[in-house]
Amino acid sequence: NCTGMESTLSACRARPWGINNCYHGEDAGVVCSGSAVSTFAPVRLVDGPGRCAGRVEVFHNEKWGTVCDDSWDFMDAKVVCRQLDCGTVVMAPRRAHFGQGQGPIWLDDVRCMGTEAALSECRAKGWGVHGCEHGEDAGVVCSDLDPGSSEALRLVNGPHRCAGRVEVFHNQQWGTICDDGWDLNDAAVVCRQLGCGTAMSAPGLSGFGQGSGPIWLDGVSCLGTEATLAECPVKPWGHHTCNHVEDAGVVCSGNPHHMPSLLRLVGGLSECAGRVEVFYNNKWGTVCDDSWDLRDAAVVCRQLGCGVALSAPGSARFGWGAGPIWLDDVSCTGEETDFSKCQAKMWGIHNCHHGEDAGVVCAAGNSSSADLQLVDGPHRCAGRVEVLHAGQWGTVCDDGWDLNDAAVVCRQLGCGRAEAAPGRARFGRGMGRIWLDDVACAGSEDALAQCRAHPWGQSNCNHGEDASVVCSGTS
User: Fold this and answer.
1) Separation CA 417–CA 425 (nearest Å)
2) Residues 93-102: pLDDT tens digits?
3) Residues in contact with 321: Cβ distance below 8 Å, sequence separation at least 6, in sequence order
């Protein structure tokens, strides 16, 4: 019966050695955040109607890959739904139900008990060991899928996500809508549900190409004021007298490129610093750093509402991305209001690798000195590093902690230059959360929040590894 603060298990309260009423079916286990088994491989569901349904993909060895459906069942799917916080499992479809993936097939013969916290904890063949092809990619459908959400509706085969053939997700399958009676009132509801502005036109006769699979809806008759297509009068699902030549389409006024969700910064400690990623062809991808400069960064910061650009680091300062490298040789004037308006090579054309992923640090991601303090030292410019996040002070782990990191702390606090960057809790052990780990500053940043690090609160450390700083200033 440990309190959690003991430094050894033998310091905890327990019955005398060897006294128990147990058998080996009750043996206890532990999975620590720093263990090889639990650097839980990230998992995602793709090409479904939302983040809680789709083809299963796991991230391993810097690449996303699929899972073979040999022995794939509800127990395996249950673990995926739990790991993604998507509720309970509804289906565990096989045979590439959500389309064939690309890249490696990472896992085969997965055999979860259903109690694991992550798919990578389940028994399986070794990474990349399989006898499968992508026609056997496994899928999952979890319960947390709102049929009235924008995730159950999409526009495909158009110039962008706000124009195209209308498709709805029903019975675990995407299908089309027949154009009988299809008009601007119906289109208005689709545009509203997708956050794409007003309806400009409602083309029928497969104006955006013929779909495949079921024709789910016919006789749609919206007033035009409904929030979602699910609220409109319509024939029962699958009841129609149509073929795919009559697939309905929509063109909305909203320019999807003005939506911040199509541009993001990841791998940093705020939404305003990180690796630049853009959304194209239903996938997030990175930007190559060839000719990347402050003018390009300025446009990104402006579009994201993050103020002015402070720096435009290249060479994957915020970590290597995964998936496609969408843009290369980006050449913004710096005056554009939209990153997609900048000159660049064609989408997906590049001569780069992810070690050249471009990054951005914007002013709005700049923490003030009020978010940082040095404690238990001789003066305010020396001591254990503590950072304020989510209303709580916490420490920084010393993994990778060096003078470059210390230099940023001293600069942010107005304490001169860094003289030392001691680890191993030189100024005593902190309490509470360990907020940062694997901090990797270049040394030129103005604030610790601009540096690369693990996401807030993710570490494999204890307070015996709390990082410290000694700056040249004393007040």
Assistant:
1) 21
2) 888 887 888 8
3) 266, 275, 277, 285, 286, 354, 357
